[in-house]
Amino acid sequence: MKIHRWLVLAAAGFVPVHGAAQELTLRVVSAFAENTTYVKNLEPMMKKLNAEGKGVLQLNFIGGPKAMPPFEVGNAVRTGVVDIGMTTGAFYTNIMPEADALKLTQRTAPELRRNGAFDLINKVWNEKANMQYLARVIDFTPFHLYLTKKIDKPDLTGLKIRITPVYRDFFQALGATVVQTAPGEVYTALERGVVDGYGWPINGIFDFNWQEKTKYRVDPGFYSAEVSLVMNLDKWKALSQAQKDFLMRHVIAHEAANESWKQVNENDIRRQAQAGIQTITFEPATARQFYDRAYEIAWTNLIKASPTYGPQMRKLFSR
Ligand code: 173
Fold first, then answer.
1. Distance of alpha carbon 316 from alpha carbon 302, whole angstroms
2. Is the pTM of this model over 0.70?
């Protein structure tokens, strides 16, 4: 009778191993709001994982900024208040300067897995942030400067610009006065004239209705918007090998679908034009300088802040 039961289970694909881990539920928070493109993009992956993960692993999505302020998500993952965060390095530079370097990648996530960059990221994230870096969920997406006032050269003197650490050094170098806010405060800052513009990726401004207050987008874009899944390291270590493999299979498949952002971005560029947002396009030589300066400033400051890892990151992230 006992043997019979074993055979049935084995045939169904469930091989009960002595001491096998129980189903585990991981709590997930997002630094981006529930109704945004970024969370909507994550939902099908979580759904699929939960459908296939019965008895193994489940993800419980707690929410976005209503559940936790965006700049707190990194620390919450580090300390284990939550298990997984969907956030961006710029939101947890309080933990380590290297966090913000993920915007400087000029290679795709699959390339970075192959060339050792993800091993380096995980070494740093483990060591300094008590985090396991799981996967990058946004790629192929430059940041831009959006304005309510016209400029005709890359000079932001006299302008107040909403920033996060992503843009701070670059916009300051261009002469701007900078004001850091979470995404949820940008609309009001624009409305009240507290800022004359903001940094943001090429996609997503419609999630917040910023098109209502935006007159210009400066081209070219620069850097590569990064949003990733990071996990508390102790929790990661507590997973069984099967749970780790299962989780990584799902998040890597999701990461491998990042090319879909190209279509999202094309649509948003069209929508921005339809909403009346004009582009300020620098002539090629100026555009080149603008773009190169963004990277030069960021790498110089990172290497200053992180003399050991900065140069290694630069080598593996750059083209
Ligand atoms: O502008 C921001 O809030 C920011 O830093 C960011 C980073 C990645 C994706 C979207 C926004």
1. 14
2. yes
